[in-house]
Structure formats: structure tokens, C-alpha cells
Specification:
Layout (H helix, E strand, L loop, with lengths): L46 E5 L15 E3 L10 E3 L6 E3 L5 E5 L8 E2 L2 E2 L2 E3 L1 E3 L9 E8 L6 E9 L2 H4 L6 E6 L7 E7 L9 E6 L11 E8 L2 E6 L2 E6 L15 E9 L15 E11 L3
Length: 291
Amino acid sequence: MTVHFSPHRRTKLCALALACGAASLAVLPSASAEPAPRSPAATAAAATFTDDFNGPAGSAVDGGKWQIETGDNVNNHERQYYTSGNKNAALDGQGNLVITARKENPGNYQCWYGRCEYTSARLNTAGKFTQTYGHVEARMKIPRGQGMWPAFWMLGADIGSVGWPQSGEIDVMENVGFEPGTVHGTLHGPGYSGSGGIGAGYTLPGGEAFADKFHTFAVDWSPNKVTWSVDGTVYQTRTPADLGGKQWVFDKPFFVILNLAVGGYWPGDPDGSTSFPQQLVVDYVHVTTGN
């Protein structure tokens, strides 16, 4: 199957990763004591990042967890301007984050092609949360329509010093509007970036569209291995053996990104069939350690 990958978005992303440490104490039983039972929690995955997007309708995301990016993106020829605050990314009061793409420009924003035609939002955890390995998951309902490009993905936290694609990129989920029933998971790194990314697509059965209801998108990431799943169904696993001798750059801290782009090289621009506003509705983002 031929899969078309994105020549990925690159905006100014210069943030330092947070260093977090934890210590644990082990107590040995005495010779006469019965061995202590092993706690289930000792082997279970531990939550390291949780956002269930609970809060009043119209409020912005938690600034302790997310930063909002602003501006346009010439690198992919996207058409939107990413706005600040809660203009295009707000809680709905029902436990969801809603990222809304609108065909409007009340702020007279300027884009690479002139006056911007659309607004949307992009947020990330750079400088607030990073992790190496684990289970990264989001439950979302994606938008529909030609030119829509929702994404849930990760970038290496060293992007500010080494640049892209040396930083590495793990795309947990991307969808382009002309493929309503298919999502893509991809790795990007040195020598396999943009249209040369390593990955695959997952297509719903029976002609279903991902915009019809919520779905859960996840990666399980461990040393020298990344595995993708949709609704718990694994559809691909990648290891250094898939890179043809190129450098594996996925053994270091990454941060998380959510965004809804409009137009670009891969999805193409909206047309007369595309209705606005369109929404990426995110029920939660959860990150845990590996089992």
C-alpha cells in the first residue's frame, strides 16, 4: 500500500525540557519475616501526564501543562494562523478540549501568502512535560472535510539545539480530510523525514469515517521500538531495522503536541465542499510509564 506522508510543520519551537526525578526506598524483610506480598502497583504503569480537560466552558487549557503556539507555518504551506489563549482552543465544560478551525480573520493576521484566511490552534507541552518511553494516548473525535489536517504527535525536546529532523518526530495520529476513514502513524528523523518518513496507515472497516465518533489513538514506546494502535488494535511496529541503517533518534525525551491545521502540501487546501467551523474534540491526553 502506498502511503503519502507529510512534509512536516516546523515553527519556532525552542523550549527547555523539564527534568524530573523520583526516589524510591526498598525495605528488606528480616530473616524470620514472611516475604511481603508484591504490590500490583509495583508492576503497573504509572501516570506521568494526565489532562482530562475538566473546567468551565470557554476556559483556556491549563497553562501549567500546555503552552499555546501562535503564528503561521510557511514550511508546510498551511493556510491557518494559530491564535493565542482560548480564541480557538477552549474547554467545552463537558470534559473536552475543542480546537476550532474557522474561516475568519478578525485580528487581521498576516500569513506567508498574505492576509490569513483561517484561524486555528496548536498547543504543546515543551518546557512543561517531556518523557522518554511509555504509553502515550489521546481519545479524540477528528474534523471532516477537504483540507483539514488534525494531528497528535511528539517532537524531541532537543529540537532547539539540534534542529529538525535530527530531533526526531513521532506522529501518533494524523489525518488528511480526503481520507476520512484513514489515519497515519509515522517516524521522522535524519534521512527519513518529510515524504520519506517511516510509517503506515490504519483504515476503519466498512467505510466508516473517523469524524463520526471518538476513537483512541496511542503509541507504546520503548527502547528501539514504537508500536501504534487505534482503539486498542495494533497496526504497526517500527524498530531501527526499518531505517535501512539510518540513525534511530527515539531514545531521549520528547514533548507532546496537539493541533488542527488547515490546508498544506499533504491535505491540499479547503474547497467548496469544506464547511466551517471544523473541530478537533479531545476527551483526554494520558501518558504513562511502560509496564
